[in-house]
């Protein structure tokens, strides 16, 4: 049985909900009470992990957070509180949890400082950035201090989708179905992944990895569509003469790690494996939004991969990239 570490797993602090009722329904499914309990109750997390063979979860905040508060001082204070609270929680369960910081994205310089604080003082493994900060893509120059600090600290940044805007949802609305369908399509059905994939494409095309060659990013949901288009992206960026030192796919295969985010589907696994290889896949369940249970370990252990590749994907890549040893 392969040791399993999962790294796109979530918690949230009790807070006043800021999402609409329709968004809550779309993100939490038919059992929002269970989602809330498993997000906040760490004893229940441990019981679930022990039952289904998960050695460790690396946790990130899934609720509204200080990352998107417009006021800079308030954003910094809220993020520090969230990160300190997570650190205090995981300290009670040695060896079972890691942490990704939430960063005050309204102030990139402060975000870089908070990344350094959480890594150096709280022992976090990096940070997760969700969505487009105030509608801005991360390839814009004001965000470079965050990437510079991540490379300096030798920690990755996990790029996660964010909540869609009203305009995003309207792209998927149609008189032939109700708004619940539009909400699903603008989020987990398609829109989230399109947005996060464009985020990654723009970052690579911006020369991010030429500037920070030792930086690593993590992309969930089997790479948010990007692995499907690596050859096409090589062709198109070559035609467009994007000012990069290497092919698009070279950066992706060396600087990006991909996780399933609980999408335990054989065709997507096979394609991602063919594109990036077992050395750049890390396991994740997207707990508690996905409760794959026995499949978390079973999907990997029952695959046709040899034992060495299973160990790489199941835990060794996470241990190396996140310095979990």
Question: How is this structure best described in words?
Answer:
GO terms for molecular function: carboxy-lyase activity; hydrolase activity. Keywords: Lyase. It holds the Pfam family Amidohydro_2. This is O-pyrocatechuate decarboxylase. The chain has 325 residues and is an alpha/beta fold. The chain has one domain: Alpha-Beta Barrel (TIM Barrel), CATH 3.20.20. It is built from 16 helices and 7 strands. It has a 7-stranded parallel β-sheet. Helix 4 (72-90) runs parallel beside helix 5 (108-120). It is globular. The protein starts with a strand and ends with a helix. Residues 15-27 have low confidence and may be disordered.
